[in-house]
Amino acid sequence: MKLWKDGMENRKYQICTNCIMDTSDVTLTFDGRGWCDYCQNYEKNIAPNWHPGPEGIAEIAPIIEKIKKEGKKRDHDCLIGISGGLDSSYVSYIAKEKFGLRPLMFHCDTGWNSDLGVSNIQKIIDGMGLDLVTEVVNWDEMKDLQRAFFLSQVPFVDTPQDLALFSALYNFASRNNFKYIITGGNNSTECVRESLEWTYFSTDMRHVKDIHNKFGTRQLKTFPTCDILKYRIYYRWLKGIRVLKLLDYVEFTKESAIKELQDRFGWQPYPQKHYESRFTRFYESFWTPTKFGYDKRRAYLSSLILTGQMKRDEALDRIAAPELDEKTMTSEFEYVAKKLDWNVEEFKAILNGENKTFRDYKNNFFWITLGARIYNLMGLDNRIFR
Fold it and tell me: Which of these, 27, 31, 268, 328, could form a disulfide with 195 (CB 3.0-4.6 Å)?
């Protein structure tokens, strides 16, 4: 099986001396201490400005009151997307039980929910008496876009699911006049953000359309989409939709949050982040390590190292072995192939095909990154509301 080596062939292997990110991320550089870019960013930009606990709660309190006041005449004062994963489950609990908000829960079913993910969603909804709206993506369209991304040979084949989950939530908020969306995004378990070589912008619709035009076979008539420019400009500034990362203001650690959800609702944990989706579990545990030579667990575990939730040696032991055993890997490979209407040999041929990057297709990389720089210079990404 062919591994992803572009950009690495003439580079000596190096691993960060502080976390476990390494040169499988071809963009990575290291300082004199051997610390990678992510550790330097955490030390310089995140840690000094992140104060979860009493200080964070005091900072967020006026915003919570604003949300409650403006939503007083509505059945729900905010919207929360729930996947059944730890972050979205815990932020739902915090919002309702600890801050007294009245969220409407929103779930997008892309056809890949694990049984445990469905069970955990139901436990959260029933346990707090919440209202849930579920949008089911047309499976034929979902399948066609996913097949197109596999055939394109780009690393981030989870783009179709990511795009659907994001777009469905924000489009629903716009249609139903929700001004506040609370997300499970957080520094505690996500302070190491993956490079664009690993995870390209799923909302770059120029990129998505080019791949689908080349490899798709049916029109995407109902598939939820939201271009990043529509989100950044129309939804934020014209529709007035605001996003709040509530978990950044409270004490939130992975193990304590799991225990709290278990004790309160009977919620059950997953072996790894994002495994509430059966597709994401396959993509992250098998497809990218095998075909492209990188393991996204490095980013997840490094986040826990930087936030003091895991020792580096423990993370190195964890990364040394696959998350899923060989028998399960084989079974999942066959399951995904069949679900996407390929036989095993056809799917293996794609796995062994020539690897590409997002740069091999039309994209808005220049304009998106330029916009991000402008946002950073203006301090717009450092506000409580995003």
Answer: 27
**Residue 55 Cα distances to 114, 208, 336, angstroms:** 37, 41, 46
Write down the pLDDT at residue 379. Answer: 66
Whether the full predicted model's pTM is greater than 0.85, yes or no, is yes
Burial class (CB in 10 A: 0-12, 13-18, 19+), 213: exposed
Strand order in the sheet with 242-244: 131-136, 103-109, 78-81, 180-182, 242-244
Phi-psi group of 34: left, alpha or beta (phi > 0 → left; psi -120 to 50 → alpha; rest → beta) = left
pLDDT tens across 117-130, in order? 999 999 999 999 99
Nearest to 142 by CA among 106, 105, 193, 108: 108
Spell 335-368 as b/e; 16+ CB within 10 A means b.
Answer: ebbeebebeeeebeebbeeebebbeebbbbbeeb
The single residue listed with the structure tokens 């014209």 is 238
Residue 92: what pLDDT?
98
Q: What are the tens digits of pLDDT across the range 140-173?
A: 999 999 999 999 999 999 999 999 999 999 999 9
Contacts (Cβ under 8 Å, ≥6 apart) of 214: 148, 152, 361
* CA-based R_g, the chain, Å: 21
- Asked if 61 contacts 55 with a C-beta cutoff of 8 angstroms, the reply is no
Residue carrying structure tokens 């091999």? 360
pLDDT in tens, 35-59: 999 999 999 999 999 999 999 999 9
CB 86, CB 269: distance < 8 Å: yes
Tell me, what amino acid is at 126?
D
Closest C-alpha to 11, from 3, 20, 25: 25
